[in-house]
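Dear colleagues,

For the upcoming journal club I promised to circulate an example of a predicted protein-ligand complex. I picked one with magnesium ion because it came up in last month's discussion. The inputs are reproduced below in full, followed by the predicted structure.
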Amino acid sequence: MRVQILPIQLINQIAAGEVVERPSSVVKELVENCFDAGATTINIDIEQGGARRIRIRDDGCGIVKDDLPLALSRYATSKIASFEDLERVASMGFRGEALPSISSVSRLTLISRVAEADCAWKVSADGSEVDFDLQPDPHPQGTTIDVRDLFYNTPARRKFLKTEKTEFAHIESLIQKMALSRFDIGFSLSHNQKEIFHLPLAVTETEQQQRIAGICGSAFLENSIKIDVASSGLQLAGWVGLPTFSRSQQDMQFFYVNGRLVRDKLIAHAVRQAFQDVLFNGRHPVFVLYLTLDPGLVDVNAHPAKLEVRFREGRLVHDFLFSALHRALAEVRPAQNTVKIGTDSHQPFSAINKSIDVTPSDTNDTLIGSRANHKGTYSTYPPAQSALPYQVEETIQAYAKLYTGADAEPAPKQEEAKQQGFPPLGYAIAHLHNIYILAETRTGIILVDAHAAHERIIYEKLKQQAQQGNVPSQPLLLPIKINISPAEADLAEQAADLFIELGFDINRSGLETIVVRSVPALMNNTDMETLIRDVLADLAQHGLSQRMQDHGKHILGTIACHSAVRAHRRLTIDEMNALLRDMERTENSGVCNHGRPTWVELSTNQLDKFFLRGQ
Ligand code: ADP
Ligand code: MG
């Protein structure tokens, strides 16, 4: 084949491959154009997840008649004219490719009217950039772009579209994010002729907070610190959730650079560092933050869909973000740092990020009593050690529960061990660094990660109960009321059956509230509220469309992780032995349910070799 120039429509379709990944990317480009046009109201109407129709109407400046064909042509833009402009671009768009790209993979109609014109003009385009036929139209000032049958002529792309629901969910979350960047614009969104939300202009701070609450849930503002810091030409404003209001997913993190929502490694790193010593591993902060700086100091032309930016002085930006956030978090006083979420389960700062305070307690009896029948089995070893004076109620309860549900019959392994007089995992000697159990076995020593092992035991137990369709449920003394976002409350409602199967009684009690009345009986020692928030975040992340079974497993894992004894709490010898016996009875007890090993063995042979004994 000879070298030839490609037809324009094909060039535009190739460009569309980069910019137009799915319906929500079309919405992003079109809404950004409305921003650039100075609109104060944007109406977005979606049909069939955007595959059938995306119609976006604004009341911005409009496009003059003669420019309409240009607006639909490649490399034509009203936003920059020179390299200098590109260097300090302040508009959302500047590449001049969105409209031609979109028109090449859909049936696009553009209607627009500027203030001075007698009427609006309407034009359709197919990305080939010839024969624009302009028709007069009664449209008011502003622009409407109607995109129908997305990817009708690119079947490969169309095949990759997810369900209508999923595609719409992307659009909805995109509009929420964009709405958080422009309080001076009112938004409305409808799907299949049904209004999904209507966000009025938010001028006053109260109105702005209402918008944020509508998107992040009202609990967020009650549990966040307001930030407004400026230094060396950089300004950071917004809200940061308290460490106690963290999440298991990174799904509530909104960061805007000059009004543009970005996902940036450097920013993520600075934020993570600032939260490092106030957040548990694996927890993610919640924030809505706006960074403003001279447009000349940031390159927004680093990504086709402009999702990434490049800072010209990365180090400076990083350090500014880190110190602004770090300082704000450090100023949080413990009293201030309690979760204020319509529940009694206030959680002091210290309990969250430091090891739990130990106070004397002599209530070990429950534990010992409830496992008395197992105790006799290995009564010769170790020398009975009296209960250590640590606060153990929580664990005692967890264990008591484990044992009430335990099999009466000993597992084969145990039987075998009994014959030999030594259980396979031996006897506990010490709790090292409050993390690892050191135990002596018949053939050597083992080290056990207590939290990981306990987690696996609870998980397997719950899984078994769930498989038998019988997860014992225990009513809470006081029902817990939890404030969540409306979307999460919807999810909780949709997942009602799943929750019942897993032993929960959860009901919606308002737009943004749910009430928890019962939880699985095995669940103990747990911050119920955080757990349920995590489960809902999980569901939101993976979608309810997934198989129920998969969800069930996921949720069981989350419950187990929350219910297991925390690392950094010293266990008594009795507790440790109880745990070892449990491990012997439990399937898969060699790995926790995140796949990490729970124990390791060093045989006397290995030790002998190491110390060159008998050689
Ligand atoms: P870009 O935004 O990069 O300039 P687009 O292809 O998105 O490129 O848009 C091309 C041009 O069409 C814009 O530069 C702008 O002049 C005009 N335009 C597009 N959408 C609108 C709108 N909603 N209101 C006013 N003008 C618009
Ligand atoms: Mg644009």
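Two points we might discuss: The CA atoms of residues 40 and 185 lie 4 Å apart. The first helix runs from residue 8 to 19.

See you all on Thursday,
B. R.
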